[in-house]
Amino acid sequence: MFTHVRTSKSNKEVVSQLTRKLNLGAENVIARIALAYSLKSNKKLDLNDIQDSGGKEYSRKVLFGNYDKYYLALVAQHYQLHISNQDLGKYVKMHVDDGLQNLFSKLESKSDTSALIFINSIEI
């Protein structure tokens, strides 16, 4: 089972920008939202397309808090994997990266907006 997740190098700045703009607290909050947003899209990501791991690093505990079993169950269910599958961490990483990119794209198209309005507009 994995202990850390690292975003791609390009998403290191994205997570910081989203955190500043939305002002929802620590960066792990944005990463959690990104994971959920990506899973909501219902697309299956291909492990062959995994990005680099040169970005922001989160320990599993920091990323998920006390809810790691729930987040991991969502990813495992999405891919029909057992919760102990060795690729589960890679899928988490890919969905965090995917969600960060998608959230950033959506936020760029909005002018001045509050976090609550933005989160409601993306319908997580």
Describe, in short, the structure shown.
With 124 residues, this protein is mostly helical.
How would you characterize this protein structure?
- It is built from six helices and two strands; from the N terminus they run βααβαααα.
- It is mainly alpha-helical and 124 residues long.
- Strands 1-2 form a two-stranded antiparallel sheet.
- Helix 1 (9-22) packs across helix 2 and helix 1 packs across helix 5 (88-108).
- It is globular.
- The protein has helices at residues 9-22, 27-40, 60-64, 68-79, 88-108, 115-122; strands at 4-6, 57-59.
- It holds the Pfam family DndE.
- It comes from Psychroflexus longus.
- This is DndE family protein.
Please give the structural blueprint.
Blueprint lengths: L3 E3 L2 H14 L4 H14 L16 E3 H5 L3 H12 L8 H21 L6 H8 L2
Antiparallel strand pairs: 1-2
Helix pairs in contact: 1-2, 1-5, 2-5
Organism: Psychroflexus longus
Pfam family, one: DndE
InterPro entries: DNA_S_DndE (IPR014969), DndE_sf (IPR038472)
Features:
5% strand, DNA_S_DndE, two-stranded antiparallel ribbon, mainly alpha, DndE family protein, DndE_sf, 6 helices, Arc Repressor Mutant, 124 residues
β-sheet strand percentage: under 5%
Oligomeric status: single chain
Mean pLDDT: 90
* Alpha plus pi helix count: 6
Radius of gyration: 14 Å
What's the number of domains? 1
How far is the first residue's CA from the last residue's CA? 27 Å
CATH topology: Arc Repressor Mutant
Pfam families: DndE (PF08870)
Protein name: DndE family protein
InterPro entries: DNA_S_DndE (IPR014969), DndE_sf (IPR038472)
